[in-house]
Specification:
alpha/beta; 8-stranded mixed β-sheet; 10 helices; 35% helix; 13% strand; globular
Length: 324
């Protein structure tokens, strides 16, 4: 599959520094993909802050993420990219943002599979591979912002309308989309040493958004802060609270008027259904156009879910997006 490098020659946040230099790894536990994965999942969904959770997250990333993701580098030299799925004649383009707890990217079920369905139904799609742990914020969100600008900058090349660009994100990918809309665009990110290019001069707005079982703030997944910020800062109570308050898409709702599609399962224990409910309430209170699809009995991560009882949501999303 084609990979479109969204940055130029200089990628902000990259260097030749080894990633393990900022990671905390468990060395006294025998590697086990099953057990390491279970520990990682339980850590991400644990609502009680623990000082040693950093080791669980970093160990999973160092042992297994780099084995399953060929684009993961041992140094901070990852190259974010988009995979294009062009639908000829489409006026709309959607950036698909996979989840994975800011540690891994579910590039198939929450990325390529989604994009193929969109393309098949006449909507151009781009799957985003963004930087994640041990890259810390703001770099994942900068990749999100740059992807939007890149897609708009190249609208004429691919034939869609630059005023009809949307994004759909899953879990941590939903965090990417929601934090991008509601927090980043308030001017959170400034890099004085970065020289902007013509893509950076392109508008970074999106015209419609899909949030699929999104992690909308860090309080429910408090230990996921370790995947997004330096450990010393996360362990500092004052700094941790500062990050928790800033990176909160519910409290900083800044996307009034942008049509939303929100979908989640009734048995999801990985993200906060209460947070999603509060976000939907803000949409209602501000008369922001939205469609809410509740998948009865579904847990977290149903993704494309083709051929299962949960797969209807994607058809609902496609109909909704095409009708905008």
């Amino acid at each position: 599959m084609e990979k479109l490098n969204i940055w130029g020659e200089k990628i902000p946040g990259n260097s030749n520094q080894k990633k393990v230099s900022v990671m905390e790894l468990r060395k006294n536990i025998k590697p086990s993909v099953k057990l390491d994965t279970i520990r990682w999942i339980l850590t991400l969904k644990d609502g009680t802050f623990k000082k040693n959770s950093k080791k669980t997250i970093d160990t999973y990333v160092d042992r297994w993420v780099k084995k399953q993701d060929s684009d993961y580098q041992d140094t901070f030299t990852d190259v974010p990219y988009l995979i294009p799925f062009i639908a000829k004649g489409s006026k709309k383009a959607v950036i698909v943002v996979p989840g994975g707890g800011y540690c891994v990217k579910s590039m198939d079920g929450e990325g390529v599979d989604i994009a193929k369905e969109l393309q098949k139904n006449g909507i151009t799609a781009f799957v985003l591979w963004y930087r994640s742990c041990p890259y810390y914020q703001p770099y994942p969100l900068m990749d999100m912002q740059r992807a939007v600008r890149y897609v708009r900058f190249h609208a004429k090349d691919y034939g869609y309308d630059p005023k009809q660009i949307g994004a759909i994100g899953f879990s941590a990918g939903g965090a990417q989309v929601s934090l991008f809309m509601n927090v980043l665009r308030q001017g959170l990110i400034t890099l004085p040493d970065y020289k902007k290019d013509e893509v950076d001069m392109t508008a970074d707005s999106i015209q419609f958004a899909g949030l699929i079982y999104p992690a909308l703030k860090y309080q429910y997944n408090i230990n996921m802060l370790y995947a997004s910020f330096p450990a010393d800062e996360v362990r500092d109570e004052k700094k941790r609270e500062e990050y928790r308050q800033i990176y909160d898409a519910v409290s900083h709702m800044n996307s009034v008027g942008i049509p939303h599609f929100i979908c989640y399962g009734t048995k999801d224990t990985m993200v906060s259904l209460q947070d999603i409910g509060e976000y939907v309430k803000v949409l209602k209170d501000t008369s922001t156009p939205h469609k809410e699809v509740v998948v009865e009995g579904a847990g977290h991560g149903f993704g494309a879910a083709g051929g299962t009882e949960y797969g209807f949501w994607l058809n609902e999303y496609i109909k909704w997006a095409k009708a905008l």
